[in-house]
Amino acid sequence: MDVFFIPQGSMSYGAVPQRSPYGNNDPAFTESATGFINPKGQAIPPKKRGLSPWIKFGIPVALVVIVAAVVGGVLGSRKSSSSSSESNSDKATGDEVASNAPVATATNVLAAGRFATATDSKYMVPIYPSATNTALFAAPTIAAGASTWPRDSFAPANPSPLEVRPDRPRLIAPKYKWDALPELIRNDPYLQGWNETIFKNASDYRALQPITYLMDGPSGILDNAREFKMRIKAFGYAYQITKNTGWVDRAWEEIQHVISPQFGPDDETKWNPTHFLDAAEFSAGFGIAYDWFYDVWSDDQKATIRAGVIRYGLNHGTAVYAGTADFGWWRTNITGNWNCVCNGGLTLASLAILGDDTTGVASGLLGQTVDNAKANCARAVTSDGSWAESPNYWYFGTTGHAEMASALLTATGSHFGLLDVNPDYFRTGVFHMYVSGPTSLFDYGDHGPPKFSTTANSMLLYGDQLNHPEFILHQREQHDAAEPWSMFWYNPAVNGAFWNGLPLDHFFDQELVQWASMRSSWTDDDALYVAIKAGRNRGHQTHNDLDVGDFVFDALGTRWAGELGSGDYRSPQYFNSELQDAERWKYYRKATVGQNTICVANGNQNVESRPSVEHDSSGTAQGSSTVLNIPDDSTAFWTTDMTSAYFEASSVKRGARLLNKRRQFLLQDEITAEGAVQWRMHTNATIAIDTAGTSATLTLDGQTLKVSILNAPSGAQFSTVQPVRPAGMPEPLVPDQENPGVTVLAISLPAGTYNLQVLFNPQWPGMSDSDFVTPSSVPLDNWSLRSHD
Description:
This is Heparinase II/III-like C-terminal domain-containing protein. One of its GO terms (molecular function) is lyase activity. Pfam families: Hepar_II_III_C (PF07940). InterPro entries: Chondroitin_lyas, Hepar_II_III_C. It is found in: Cell envelope. The structure is a single chain. The protein has 15 helices and 21 strands. It is α+β, with helices and mostly antiparallel strands. It has two domains: 329 residues, Alpha/alpha barrel (Glycosyltransferase), CATH 1.50.10.100; 271 residues, Beta-galactosidase, Chain A, domain 5 (Distorted Sandwich). The strands form five sheets. It has an eight-stranded antiparallel β-sheet with strand order 11-12-13-14-21-18-17-16, with no helix packed on it. Strands 5-6-7-8-9 form a five-stranded antiparallel β-sheet, covered by helices on one side. β13 and β14 form a beta hairpin. It starts with 52 loop residues before the first helix and ends in a 27-residue tail after the last strand.
């Protein structure tokens, strides 16, 4: 399809005030500009990077191209050694700034800089210096009297979703925040770095052609919608900061394109409402465009935007709430990302045009979406904070939820309970912190589509609104922090270090997920990290795997045991059912054989599993230093009886334990099975197995991991197998995806009773063989904090 271009030059704009010293000559529109607004006046080139194989698995090629656009961390190369004492001068810093201003708090002066000195270019996680600074790395607080946002003068006594602030913009970033932002940027290194990245991204998007219509099977045009929204946010931000109307022109080109006859069907289904996420995200983008460029749109342009968003988005939302649409399933008892994104998009668009809309569509929807989201979207968080779908779908759900809550707050003066109707909602910030390992997420289940306009910046809003400064401090270091929402959700008065006082272990016991997070440090990117789960095999909005007992393992700056992630969403019946015979479970990445767990008779686990868990921790917490000296008695363990997940086994139990000051990891399985047993672990490592078969040496990223079978039962030996369905498993309707670069380390045994104890020994620098311990053999039911001393 030819790209539809909109002729320029027909628009006229009145005089607009300027906030930026660049005025209408901002560097993003000069021939040689990178798009960064660098306080020192010099262009900062973007950095190149590679991607972890685990990040690549299951992700469309489009994401590999676009993911670099939302990088806001301090970019640098992956460390070439495991030393954590590398000097800052050895790291490339893509948006690092410096100043001689005196230090008052950790964030309101440039002299303090940013805590993370670089971003790991493989896994895109922050790298922290080896340092102790009790002044900067204090306990998390929001400092009273520190430089922050002025108070909003709009404070209605009786807020209503139908009564909005009188000034513009009204969505997420009111005028008083835009007015205050330049000074905050000058005095805060995080805002400064994000601002630079946003301008670079806006310049990159500006150079692209308008979005090409792409119907991607069951995922519809969701990537189109989210990329449109991402571009509009960036263009709107650049315009509001510089008042350069070139950004308005570029946004108008994009807007006209996605409502033109050349973009998809030339009828009411243009935004694909049958996959309502698409229409919702387009609606959100149109709402942002209408509101953030409101002062320069002509009356005709406003009418065009209103007509487009009503015809292609909001009218379909009205049909959903009237019960006349067959694609409104997401509004009833759907506690997941669909409800959050759909209600959020409808709400942003309706708030944006409210007062100008003469059809009544906007006010009608606002009478529905808020209460519906409170009853559904806000309930996606379990009582202990886990997101019901998967750790990656947390991003989509919380983004929709946060956008909706923030827009309501700024436009009407209240979130109407959306942030606190679920008293446990704040715990999802805890979930996100603990599901994030030294290399990447414990990313069980589906990973979802590309995160064009989706980040973890909900943590900034939740931290500020729900008084959890540790959420803000954690997220501000992440590579995805740099996008327009962060500029307004971030509270510059935050102070301290997220890790100060934060326990190394956390256990999530709500039966839907049931999982554990155990680590040796929050700030050492070489840290040991074990995350392992039990939970139910149903009830996750068809985004889970059959994966009771699944685990990931990080050490020495790399992921040794990882997740394969999403299957191909276009595969037949991929989302149709969670029942035992569902087609979904025939696809390798969703089947039990595709997980790091025990397989019995090459079969899938029982979807009606009800495992139980036990656990304990020594309670070790990190202090103010980024360097943590682990006490001799520091340990943690987690066990599960997962017998209910198996059909041909009378007993299956699994336990994970940290040993030797959290430098070793023991995985123990106790199994009595009537079918053949296989222990499986997916890895990117190269594997060498010794002649006895009870020890394997794994090498990856220049690091080494030794894995041993302790007290090996007769016949227990390591082998390597390919990540494909074993012979005899039911064939899926279409061939499985390939899993390049992945090998399965396995232990295969006939039916019987076994105690498999697998010890993981990362080869830490400076540790000799005598420094490693060989633990005693202790039955799982007898595990305690001191059982392996």
